[in-house]
Design brief:
The chain has three domains: 43 residues, no CATH class; 166 residues, no CATH class; 120 residues, Endonuclease, Chain A (3-Layer(aba) Sandwich), CATH 3.40.960.10. The longest helix has 16 residues. It starts with 12 loop residues before the first strand and ends in a 17-residue tail after the last helix. The strands form four sheets. A four-stranded mixed β-sheet has the order 9-10-11-12, with helices on both faces. It has a three-stranded antiparallel β-sheet with strand order 1-3-2. α6 crosses α9. The chain has 364 residues and is of the alpha+beta class. It contains 13 helices and twelve strands. A hairpin with a 3-residue loop joins β2 and β3. This is DUF559 domain-containing protein.
Length: 364
């Protein structure tokens, strides 16, 4: 190849457009290009971002189609478990700090460090159409033929509205992951116009019968506002499922002297005890670590006891649940027995809680 392909990193063009630029058909058939969308190609080493692929589908390949299912979730920023559809939910890992759901960001088509040459694959693009025609067979696209449903537009891309998206995901997602998705939509970083819990529940009822409807209705009953991360959602479900009293999500605590407001992830105010969830990106810098330690000291001075949990505790929750039993019990709350906790943990592989939950639990 004599032309400089680096100049065209991130582009997605039709075969004829690449030929017009001076590339040869043997270039397009070689390892430096990756074919998709039945007639389009992108550079293998710097493939087009997901947002560009979806926009091409909507404007050129399938005009009038709507990004749906997992694709809409990623574009909106609705959390998905890491094992879902080959980790498509991880595509937003490199777009910076958490943002309000529905904020337009250029979502890449590969996770950080992944390479098409090393075996990574581009995500399947889900779209829905309502034109009544048989879905076209397109490389890398799954077309769902559905009735017209509510949509919203982000960054020039039309996607399923949050309530409709939940109905689409309900067919495949475990109920615990559906709870996490609902929490995100109605939470502090929820989508503008996404509606509150009553709005979503009303839409689901009007939607009638669909695959996963019972699972979604059950998830709606467990969703809570003020939740800031999917890890907090799953941890709350683990705690309640094990038999602990339901905690308050992101309980505000005000220092009477400084008037500074702090939020506790999962709190039992009567016992002055909170369970904090530290995600994988937590305390990545010394400055962040110092802020966390100062916050912990301030809350301890007010009489609060803080327990910390991590992503490892989501996969293997027995340790943190037993510790929580001891701490809350010492502070006067009615807590489940150790036997009850162990039975619950043993049941998790069948609990339909989360695709991120490990299939085995530690014995102690």
């Amino acid at each position: 190849m004599h032309l400089d392909l680096d100049r065209h990193g991130g582009e997605l063009r039709s075969r004829q457009e690449w030929l017009d630029l001076g590339f040869h058909s043997r270039d397009l058939a070689g390892p430096d290009f990756t074919a998709l969308l039945s007639g389009f190609h992108t550079p293998t080493d710097r493939p087009a971002p997901l947002t560009r692929i979806v926009r091409t589908v909507q404007t050129v390949v399938l005009p009038g189609s709507v990004a749906s299912h997992a694709t809409a979730a990623v574009l909106l920023g609705v959390p998905l478990p890491w094992r879902y559809e080959r980790g498509v939910g991880l595509l937003r890992a490199g777009v910076g700090a958490p943002r309000r759901i529905g904020t337009a960001v250029p979502v890449p088509s590969l996770t950080p460090g992944a390479s098409l040459r090393a075996g990574a694959r581009l995500p399947v693009v889900h779209v829905r159409t309502s034109d009544g025609k048989a879905p076209r067979s397109l490389t890398g696209v799954r077309t769902h033929r559905m009735e017209k449903r509510p949509t919203l537009t982000i960054g020039g891309i039309e996607v399923s509205a949050p309530a409709e998206l939940l109905c689409e995901l309900a067919a495949d997602l475990p109920w615990g992951d559906l709870v996490a998705a609902i929490d995100a939509i109605i939470g502090p970083l929820g989508a503008r116009g996404g509606g509150g819990l009553p709005d979503i529940a009303g839409y689901v009822e009007r939607r009638g019968s669909f695959r996963g409807a019972a699972r979604l209705r059950r998830a709606l009953g467990h969703a809570r506002e003020m939740v800031r991360s999917p890890g907090e959602s799953i941890m709350r479900l683990l705690v309640v499922g094990a038999g602990f009293p339901p905690p308050d999500a992101n309980l505000p605590v005000i220092d009477p002297q400084t008037r500074q407001r702090r939020y506790l992830d999962l709190a039992w105010e009567a016992a002055m005890t909170a369970l904090e969830y530290d995600g994988d990106g937590h305390r990545t810098t010394k400055q962040q670590w110092r802020r966390d330690e100062a916050r912990r000291d301030e809350l301890a001075a007010l009489g609060w006891v803080l327990a910390r949990s991590t992503g490892e505790d989501l996969a293997h929750p027995l340790r943190i649940l037993l510790r929580l039993r001891r701490t809350l019990g010492e502070r006067g709350l009615v807590v489940p027995s150790e036997h009850q906790i162990r039975l619950f943990v043993a049941s998790l592989p069948k609990a339909d809680l989360s695709l991120a939950t490990a299939p085995r639990q530690p014995s102690a």
